[in-house]
Amino acid sequence: MWATAVGVARVRALETERADPLFRDPLARAFAAAGGLWPSSPPPPEGDEAARRRRLAVAFSIVVRTKFLDDLLRQASASGIRQVVLLGAGMDSRAFRINWPEDTRLFEVDTAEPLDFKDSVLRQERAVPRCRRIPVTADLREDWPAALAAAGHDAAEPTVWIAEGLLIYLPQDAVEVLLARIGAQSAPGSRMGLTLASRGVIERFGADAAPGSAASLWVSEMPDDPVDWLAGHGWDAQAHTLRERAAAYGRPISTPPGHEEGPGSLIAAVRR
Hints:
alpha/beta
């Protein structure tokens, strides 16, 4: 799945090159190039307009969610939180591109292959983090809280957790286990940013997805009421739609909303 993270980096690199970017990710181009996705990625079959539109929609959602979670992290930092955990960190470069207070510790949890690939690019780019960056090699299907604790995470102190583009790849029972584990490591006042799959997205994008593509691996969509669902896990949450956030960021979606858009898929939550 780490190759998908390289594709996300390519989207962020393209956004960075815009005249009016919602964020700047100077390392994204290097990640995409090292993964063979720069300057271009493989095009869809000629004449497949529906596939082109789907690719554009996914790229747009990545841009909006990146901005949303950047804002959430800055707000958490301004509130005094000094522990950040990126679950399934992939090619995330927030340790390098956000101005963190110097005592911030940022844990990047992922398996060895993406972390090794990422570190090789970071060495090549001579990238210097703006906080204490702590890679944590762990599989989220296994006992990752133990590995996180061994790396220095303090569950008695508030943490801001980010699970970006992750839950869609996990079956529902694994999502529940992940949230229970996050909750067990979260002091009151901790924050969490999640991205959930809109209802119907697997049907629309995954039905004819190429084997091995990101969409072919999607298995989990958002619950009917994500705010109520997270309340059951001990979090006070707000759900924002992609359409709402895109408009707030000056990138309004021109097409009319479909009935399947449902509740918000961008989640900001605070631990009770």
